[in-house]
Write a structure and sequence with these properties.
Elements: H1 3-17, E1 33-34, H2 35-44, H3 51-60, E2 66-68, E3 74-77, E4 97-103, H4 107-113, E5 115-116, E6 123-125, H5 129-137, E7 142-148, H6 149-154, E8 160-161, E9 167-169, E10 171-172, E11 177-181
Amino acid sequence: MSKSEQRISRVMSLVLRHDPGSIGLSLDENGWAEIEALVDCLRRDGKRVDRELIEKVVATSDKQRFRISEDGRLIRANQGHSIEIDFKLDEKPPPEWLYHGTAMKSMGPIKREGLLKGERQYVHLSIDKETARKVGSRHGKPVILEVAAQLMEKHGHRFYQAENGVWLTDHVPPDYLNQRFTP
């Protein structure tokens, strides 16, 4: 992804996940926006963008952050919202273990409170350690936490899987966490 594509991807993440009003964009209750409205709003905000660039960002995003609707008219972020969005996700049984990457400096609160969703709608979990390591590396010295997902589900916690494969849950209490993997 080129630098200009990375910049547009970051702006798209901001407006589609957190603050659509910052550029005058509206999302529906499921997080969808019209692609043409996104392009128009980004242009009015001074960004050099067209539909082709938006489609390229969606297609080349290594994290599959965005999705275009089947009819090609709408776009939304797959997860990570701090605004209330109804994804209409069905509960799904998780694998035995999931992983969460964080920074060493965050471990004190995590050991006391577990993984909290903070300003997002859900706690994000990965199916593999490498993805978790990459996430944790963005915040400092990474720590990979092992989450006993099936045990959590057995004890009544609900899990969902976003369209890009990220696992979602409301909270991971500390008793379900193992700090076993550090890069």
